[in-house]
Design a protein that fits this description.
Elements lengths: L1 H30 L38 H18 L3 H15 L1 H4 L2 H8 L3 H21 L9 H4 L31 H10 L1
Helix pairs in contact: 1-2, 1-3, 1-6
């Protein structure tokens, strides 16, 4: 029984990471969608973006705006219209989840989650705890109903998620106390017994 419980907890933890990333991806997708009438339309052509002639080719970087793919839009609609409406317990948690995701996906426009909590009179730690509980509840519900859980576009989402990346340059390497060229010597029977007694 203990192993079944721990296996289920591990499955929920793994699924929670994907659910969290999918919620952030949905916010990012909706933030970058162009819908006529909701925001000013930009000039579009089928030609790729190129720098003006006065700057010269290759000297300045051209910023190409991110356009969500059809699969990203489909995943975002699943999160917004299914998970948020059917699996989230109440409106308060929907607001907290949505604003947390928007704060990660579009911080220049929305601001930080800390600012949102301060502005609306919420305790940030309580909001984060409720958000984590709700994400785990969504993951458990998806596992319970044996629904397919699609992965987000990790290359797009992982830089937005807090504490998700690993900087392998900062990971400590194993160091040995032996000098280069030193060879371990076999201990005599008396030395082994002495070391056992000391331990």
């Amino acid at each position: 029984m203990q192993s079944d419980l721990s296996i289920h907890a591990a499955e929920v933890a793994d699924a929670s990471l994907i659910v969290k990333a999918r919620i952030v991806e949905a916010a990012d997708t909706f933030a970058h969608m162009d819908v006529r009438g909701l925001s000013p339309a930009t000039l579009r052509t089928f030609w790729p973006a190129s720098p003006p002639d006065s700057q010269g080719y290759g000297y300045n970087e051209v910023k190409v705006r991110y356009r969500p793919s059809a699969s990203a839009i489909s995943r975002a609609e699943e999160v917004t219209y299914r998970w948020m409406t059917e699996l989230v317990q109440d409106d308060e948690r929907r607001v907290v989840l949505g604003m947390w995701a928007m704060c990660l996906a579009w911080p220049r426009m929305v601001g930080s989650f800390r600012q949102f909590c301060a502005k609306t009179g919420r305790v940030r730690r309580t909001a984060e705890r409720r958000m984590d509980q709700q994400i785990s509840a969504i993951a458990a519900s998806l596992i319970k109903n044996a629904q397919s859980l699609q992965h987000p576009n990790w290359s797009r989402v992982s830089p937005m998620l807090p504490n998700q990346g690993s900087d392998f340059g900062r990971i400590a390497t194993v160091t040995h106390w032996m000098a280069d060229g030193a060879k371990p010597e076999a201990l005599s029977k008396e030395d082994r017994e002495a070391s056992r007694k000391a331990a």
